[in-house]
Write a sequence for this structure.
């Protein structure tokens, strides 16, 4: 059980509160985007590869799309914020393909693929906030089990 008198418990509460706040901000931002978003058909015009520095992991690939927002005649280019791999798409043959995107009419360069709104990021943050609350208890039990009193 957390007791606010212990420094480790206070640190865990602070980290949990910070993560919970970030999760809430992410959720609110995604909700605002979803309410205002318009749907458009966009053409994938370019792929950008970002090599991961750590480990020998597969490089991330981001797609740049081009579309014409409703009510305008000027096309907009924007990079999707999620990697092609995380969207379930294959980079091979993707350039030139039409995809459905959602964009913010007030800022058309803010784009999401398909039905994604960005709320997906709130769940891991909330889970980490919850986990942070249990860290002091886990550490105390681990210390007791190893004979560290």
């Amino acid at each position: 059980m957390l007791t606010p008198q212990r420094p480790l418990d206070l640190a865990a509460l602070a980290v949990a509160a910070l993560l919970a706040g970030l999760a809430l901000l992410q959720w609110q931002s995604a909700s605002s985007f979803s309410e205002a978003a318009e749907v458009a058909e966009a053409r994938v015009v370019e792929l950008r590869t970002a090599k991961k520095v750590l480990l020998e992991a597969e490089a991330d690939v981001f797609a740049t799309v081009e579309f014409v927002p409703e009510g305008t005649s000027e096309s907009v280019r924007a990079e999707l914020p999620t990697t092609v791999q995380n969207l379930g798409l294959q980079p091979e043959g993707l350039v030139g393909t039409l995809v459905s995107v959602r964009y913010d009419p007030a800022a058309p360069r803010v784009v999401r693929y398909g039905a994604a709104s960005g709320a997906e990021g709130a769940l891991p943050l909330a889970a980490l906030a919850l986990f942070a609350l249990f860290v002091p208890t886990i550490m105390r039990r681990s210390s007791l089990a190893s004979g560290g009193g």
Remarks:
- The longest helix spans residues 7-36.
- Helices lie at 7-36, 122-145.
- Residues 41-116 form one domain.
